[in-house]
Amino acid sequence: MPQTLLKGRIILHLDMDSFFASIEEREHPEYRGRPVIVGADPMEGKGRGVVSTANYEARRYGIHSAMPISRAYYLCPDGIFLGVNYALYSMVSHRIMDILRGYGTAFQQVSIDEAYLDLTGAVDDFQEARALAEGIKEEIRKRERLTASIGIGPSKVVAKIASDFRKPDGLTVVPPEEVEAFLAPLPVRKIPGVGEKTEEVLKLEGIRTIGDLQKRTPGELVELFGKWGLELHNLALGIDHRPVQERRVTKSIGRETTFLEDTADPGEVLAALEDIIAEVHQEAVERGYSFRTVTLKLRLKDFTTFTRSRTLARPTRDREVIKDIAEQLFSEFRGREVRLVGIRLTGLVRPGRGQTRLDDFCPD
Prior knowledge:
With 364 residues, the chain is α+β, with helices and mostly antiparallel strands. The protein folds into 3 domains: 1-180, Alpha-Beta Plaits; 184-240, 5' to 3' exonuclease, C-terminal subdomain (DNA polymerase, domain 1, Orthogonal Bundle), CATH 1.10.150; 252-363, Dna Ligase, domain 1 (2-Layer Sandwich), CATH 3.30.1490. It is 37% helix and 22% strand. The strands form 3 sheets. Strands 5-6-1-7-8 form a 5-stranded mixed beta sheet. Helix 10 crosses helix 11. The chain starts with 10 loop residues before the first strand and ends with a strand. Residues 352-364 have low confidence and may be disordered.
């Protein structure tokens, strides 16, 4: 492996362990040792919500984030199902991120419970980086009574994969000379960006592990995936030149879907909207955002496209608010044949400050 391309940087990735559920266990000691699923009440709304976080006891039942809450209830009806306490999780997240900002030469938060640190220049070698990581974990444990898993490597991709290697409460350090051997036995899905479809294509080519990828030439992978094939080859070798830096401010969070056939059935459109709302809401929560404006996008059978918006007096993170606004905005188009539907949240702020009631609506 071209180790010279990996030398020179020391990158740390921190991932809190089952963050939402762990906070709930901290606040409610009686939950400890029991399956805790945070996301929605499976008895409300016919269980159309999704799982935000499940603790490790719940994961033994096959429950994972983004799973429909109805499926989670089917797998574990005796679990503890909780709504999402946005204000509490955001407050804890900000305290943890403030701890991290005190270390390293650069900081980048990537979600409500994940962040990178560039330790290059802050420590002399990977041994010192391990000691520093142990100090970070101990400080979080003492101050927040929570555990974190940390990975350290010569690039962001290696650090991220390493942080997931020994969960929960893990610490995995991968110096440059060990990168290839560390990555080789892992399944290809461990590479960020490799999803189900990419995995299936790779399996057809006899590629199941990262080691299998390492043995292929860049040209072979480019033939399969175009430019992404070259990046995939580099990631399999742990090569990732992305810097650790604060992200630009997110201006919006949105999703849309196109129906296989145009539909005038309001129930079908509203069901699609509920799925979209669950996705945008989960992303907002995971990234620590509240929103003020909800925008509905509709494309009709003749390809005319409409957007309708509603703005709140104060920011909120309430999923039911998104749903109620979307239903009100859609009422104008009931009975018309719809080709595409979408939802976008704007007016994003971080952290949120309290909930908003439906009577706080004001026209855009």
